[in-house]
Design brief:
membrane, Amino acid/polyamine transporter I, 450 residues
Amino acid sequence: MVDSNGLEKDKDQVQLKRTLSLIDLVAYGLAYISLVAALLTFGIVWDAANGLISLAYLLGAICIYFTAKSYSTMAAIHPNAGSVYGYTKMALGPFAGFLAGWLILLDYLLIPALIFILMAIGIQTLIPEISRPIWIIILVAFSSLINWRGIQVSTKISLTSVVIQILIVLGVIIFSYKALQGGAGTGSITLAPLYNPESFNFGNIFTATAICIISFLGFDAITTLSEEVKGDSTKLIGKAIMIVLFISAFSFIITTLFIGNLTIGFNVKDPSAAIYEILDHQIGTWSSITFAWLTAVFVSFTNALPMQAGVARVLFAMGRNKQLPAPLGLIHPKRKIPHIAMMVSTAISLCIALLMQNKVDILALFVSFGALAGFLMLHISVLVHLGIKKSNRQIYSHIIVPVFGIFTVLALFYCMHHDALILGGIWTLAGIAYGLYLQKKEKISLVITE
């Protein structure tokens, strides 16, 4: 049997419901990324970059471009809910595919936990009477309830959230400009957060860039919805990825440039809550409170929606192929969602958020390792499958892009914090061991349909 994209399907294979348009995909990606992400993690990246935060985001955007291009290339020939897991399995074989899925899960499982913590911190500044763990539980419960209603409902809420986030970002830029004109920070718009020879350090910049990657994560999650796109998903997925990357990169660089100028000369006490301190001191208490309320109401309760949906679909794809417990590959008969995978991923993210609620910086680094490891497998897949094996290769897309992508990922790994490398190494070894077990049980060598 062949589906609307020309892919052969097993007649018994469970299928997701195709309801999403290009606007839905872009909204999903931007909501996943969150246009206020650079503000919420401002203090962490500012410290890591030694003040050159806009430069870190610019380099992050350049690095992500190569990865986004490779994702677009693979999505065009293999529209599959498993994202990099499906791409690598097709290009390098079942075992490599399993390992790629295992590695990207470190990113997909941890980033919702990271967002739950960041949002809980923001809400707690408004209502300190309720503890951070309680807010985390409330946020998780809300996101789970919405996602349970189906991907179409969550994408509509995501679109509304994106519009409001654009207004929030514009408001921050406008009032930051007025504060600078009034003498706050540098007193004007300078390029100090983008270029300053006295602050530049190669190692610091690449460490900060590795953290910045987190803010861009979302364009890759769009590929997890390939089996839920109506129309030609081979074209829409790639188009949505590049649109999301351009909008988010522009937003992050501009906002950090303005806030960066406000921060110069200001001593941040708590990096995880830096934006609230900066707004409070440099613009006014009202701005900090307003920003906190807006992000709490219109971002906190919606930002994790696409994240939960994305990781659930990777677990679903791996469970459907028997490379994770088979129940993960089940679909709810009425709502047409991977309900078991969603419940499992939500439970894991909740536990991680509660355990790491006071270790945001370390958690951010762990997320980066998972993302970069997945990106590395993606670039290798493109290079091998299209750049080497195919005779009708395209020099730019199939060779130059993945080669540069591999180089940038390895450079970021080289500058990554040793704690993240240690945990990532342990996770990788555990994945290899489990993969060898599956191979021994002949679960990886099964004939797998996508």
